[in-house]
Please model this.
Amino acid sequence: MATYALQIAGLVLGGVGMVGTVAVTVMPQWRVSAFIESNIVVFENLWEGLWMSCMRHANIRMQCKIYDSLLALSPDLQAARGLMCAASVLAFLAFLTAVLGMKCTRCAGDDDKVKGHILLTAGVIFIITGLVVLIPVSWVANSIIRDFYNPIVDIAQKRELGEALYIGWTTALVLIVGGALFCCVSCCHEKSSSYRYSIPSHRTTQKSYHAEKKSPSVYSKSQYV
Model:
């Protein structure tokens, strides 16, 4: 029952991580306008994401424009686009693998050992996905902070951390925790199966003892003859 609860918790965290990965990939709020010194323009907000940039004026609806070319992006955003797309695919594969290894599903049969290996695979993929999400989010955040405190960079070009970065860090943590839960469930399956096959039952031991006692050896029969 405890392992089944861990499976449900891991699947829920994995599903939340998968949705969060896709959301972070699509969101344009990776870099937002920095309102500092003379750049206090409260009626204009600028968002920069992996796929588009959006500008919102006061009393005017938001206007978004998709980037014309991948080369127009900075190197950190170029790498982030590729890594986040890979993370989205990995999160989807890990979630499907986890569903196949769940105790309530019959797609992989009823063998607990096989399902334990499937859940271990799903857990490892979830952990790898969390690391893949963590790398671009931290990389972009580091470049934003570096440019923010760089006196050479123009004030109008400085940006702040957007909401997508905070959601990305949370998503990476959720994915890693979900993967760790699946790995723990797999270890529990391995221990229970090894314990089940290594220790014979008490009834089996008594039956074998009585069978040996009832059947005399050939040597003892020859003595009576």
Observations:
- Residues 195-205, 217-225 have pLDDT under 50 and may be disordered.
